[in-house]
What does this fold into?
Amino acid sequence: MRIAYICADPGIPVFGTKGASVHIQDVVRELVRRGHDVEIHAVRMGDRVPADLADVPTVEYPLDADGAGDRERA
It folds into this structure.
């Protein structure tokens, strides 16, 4: 099965070392272990990709600092 794991929270680096980051990594590991084709989509990836997740495709959607608050003002 093809699975897109999406993390839209800018406070969570996917490849970080704290709670939510570790949870994302563990879920992705298990999905890959079960034979699924996983791709990670996130606004913040982090910089330390674990070796066992290095082959998992990622797509980063960095937040635009210039547009900060546009949605709230609308």
Summary: Strands lie at 2-7, 37-42, 58-60. The chain has one domain: 2-66.
